[in-house]
Prior knowledge:
The chain is mainly α and 74 residues long. It is built from three helices and no strands.
Amino acid sequence: MGKSILIKDTTREERVRIIRGSLDCGAGGCENCSSCWLGGGTVDGIYQDYIDGKRELADINREYSERFAGRQRR
């Protein structure tokens, strides 16, 4: 089993690596990107609360998915 990605088990630097590594779309990294391919804004913006240790990744993903699904139904 892999290392936990929960806030209590990671450092801020590890959380940055988790986000950047997990969401790499292959376009050369997030540094030169203006928005997430899902249309949600910058990766740092979407996941800043996780990076800062305020909200778990699963909670952010769930909220984002609910908002995205709501836009698709309109």
